[in-house]
Amino acid sequence: MRMRLLSGRGHYETVLAAVAGAHRSVWIATANLKELMVEDGRAVPGRARTRTKSAYRSVLHVFDDLARNGVELRVLHATPPSGPFRAEFDRHPRLYRGGLELRACPRVHLKAVVVDGTFLYLGSANWTGAGLGAKGAGRRNFELGFATSDVGLLDEVQAIFDGLWNGRGCTGCRLRDVCEAPLDGQPGR
Known about the structure:
Layout: E1 3-7, H1 9-20, E2 25-30, E3 37-39, E4 56-58, H2 59-68, E5 72-77, H3 83-89, H4 93-99, E6 101-104, E7 112-115, E8 119-123, H5 129-132, E9 144-148, H6 151-165
Parallel strand pairs: 2-5, 5-6
Antiparallel strand pairs: 1-9, 2-7, 3-4, 7-8, 8-9
């Protein structure tokens, strides 16, 4: 099995580049879902920026571009999205009208990113600026993970993700009675 170990800025450079280059699908599993700022690739060094005033933009702009191109976007998360994430999400009608599907399960703690069924990240980093973002070395979490294109591992992780996404873990879950919206569509009580 071939894989690449990721640490520090390697998470940002590898995982977010894979996501930005998606053609068919992006599936993300994370415990925490927060606003994630990424470098604005539209900015050209030495030329005045006409579209943005900052060298950074929300990853939700990237998601909006992907959704416009028909890329399926799914995020499975444990905790409610942060206020800044929610505020930015609400600025993207294409995303909140179904372009970005969000599902919550309080037991999700895995961190995985699957792109186009050909790229897999597994590791410790949440979908946050401190975990995966472009923050400077003094502000970034100490994270480890790996990236691979191993077909067997991709199949296994996608099956687990899809099972959680479709609520197969809800039956018999001890948090079901306090779960705001069990994924299997059945009321918690």
